[in-house]
Amino acid sequence: MSQASGVKRQSEEKNFVESGLSPIADNFEPKIIGFLCNWCSYAGADKAGASQNPYPPNVNVIKVMCSGRIDPQFVMKAFENGADGVIILACHPGDCHYKEGNYRAVQRYRMLIRLLKQMGIEEDRCRFDYVSAGEGDKFVRVITDMVETVRGLGPIKIVQAI
């Protein structure tokens, strides 16, 4: 590297520091874990894929048999292991194959949000929504919105209390 390019790089780094920006923050791509119900939401994701309806690749999907089986500890472990956001997608009310699983999921989600607030994790980093098997377009909208929301929040800053 020439001396001139080294000086230019130092100048660029100084400008980033002074502006409060950093090249890392500008290129931030969030890592999101998605817990999807096997019967509805996962099928909705499959429909989006089969329809060649693109969505951001930032979400790592974990298929669960029922959204009601998602333990808040799973979500906390996702954050502990480096996730910047978590999305839980369930069957619509009244459509759960296990009758009340999605209602249980809503109750657990509400408790989870209170826990995240106590831990200093922004509420918008965790989202709950309904997506049915025929809603591939909605799946794409929800995922895209989640990625953009978390991207706007920036990298997560976790207190070691998890």
Secondary-structure map:
Elements: H1 3-19, H2 23-26, E1 32-37, H3 41-50, E2 59-64, H4 72-80, E3 85-90, H5 101-119, E4 126-130, H6 136-153
Parallel strand pairs: 1-2, 1-3, 3-4
Helix pairs in contact: 3-6
GO molecular function, one term: metal ion binding
InterPro entries: MvhD/FlpD (IPR003813)
Keywords: Iron, Iron-sulfur, Metal-binding, Oxidoreductase
- Distance linking N and C termini: 43 Å
Structural class: alpha/beta
The level 1 CATH classification is Alpha Beta
Number of strands: 4
Query: What's the helical proportion of residues?
Result: 40-55%
Count up the domains. 1
Low-pLDDT windows of residues: 5-24
What does this structure look like?
This protein has helices at 3-19, 23-26, 41-50, 72-80, 101-119, 136-153, and strands at residues 32-37, 59-64, 85-90, 126-130. With 162 residues, the protein is α/β, with parallel strands linked by helices. It has a single domain (29-150), classed as Rossmann fold (3-Layer(aba) Sandwich). Strands 2-1-3-4 form a 4-stranded parallel beta sheet, sandwiched between helices. The relative contact order is 0.20. Residues 5-24 have low confidence and may be disordered. One of its GO terms (molecular function) is oxidoreductase activity. InterPro entries: MvhD/FlpD. This is Hydrogenase iron-sulfur subunit.
